[in-house]
């Protein structure tokens, strides 16, 4: 991975820029751009008070992948039952946090280019950040989200007037 050039990201990768350069939960932004979204867990690893979850997030209407996510979750920071719902379903972590009334804030965001221009990962960008409980700053999870290629994302963006805001 190389250091990102945020000017290039904003100029040449507008959808990726919109998905990465905000301080909100990714769930809300994905639904705004792509309608309903679901997650498929690809791997999981338990280690004491943390669990690492690898998943791919898909646009529900088309089945097209949008991003690959790695979450290193601090289990004690979650309300009872939330982790089980995450690991046993297709809901997005952010959607479950919103539903449970868990207010979070993001810190330490780093945006990166996943590969060299013209390479296998041309046009793919990602971000790493920490998610903390908004009230006391307790770590909820470390997040790594790597988008699919910009050209794919552009082809999947819903028109601005779409009505499908449900996240199943």
Characterise the protein shown here.
The chain is an alpha+beta fold. Helix 1 packs across helix 2 (14-20). Strand 2 (37-47) and strand 3 form a beta hairpin. It has a 7-stranded antiparallel β-sheet. The chain is globular. Helices cover 26% and strands 36% of the residues. The termini are far apart. Residues 161-168 have low confidence and may be disordered.
Q: Notable features of this structure?
A:
168 residues; alpha+beta; seven-stranded antiparallel sheet; 6 helices; 7 strands; 36% strand; globular; disordered C terminus
Short summary:
This protein has helices at residues 6-12, 14-20, 26-34, 82-87, 93-99, 150-156; strands at residues 2-3, 37-47, 50-59, 65-74, 104-113, 125-133, 139-147.
Give the beta-strand count: 7
Number of helices: 6
Q: What is the radius of gyration? A: 16 Å
What ranges have pLDDT less than 50 throughout 5 or more consecutive residues? 161-168
Look at the helices and sheets and give the structural class. alpha+beta
What percentage of amino acids are in beta strands?
35-45%
What does the oligomeric state look like here?
single chain
The run of helices and strands is: EHHHEEEHHEEEH
Mean pLDDT across every amino acid position: 89
Could you estimate the helical fraction of the residues in percent? 25-40%
Overall 3D shape: globular
Distance between the termini: 33 Å
Instruction: Please list the strands of the largest sheet in the order they lie side by side.
Output: 1-5-6-7-4-3-2
Largest sheet: 7 strands, antiparallel
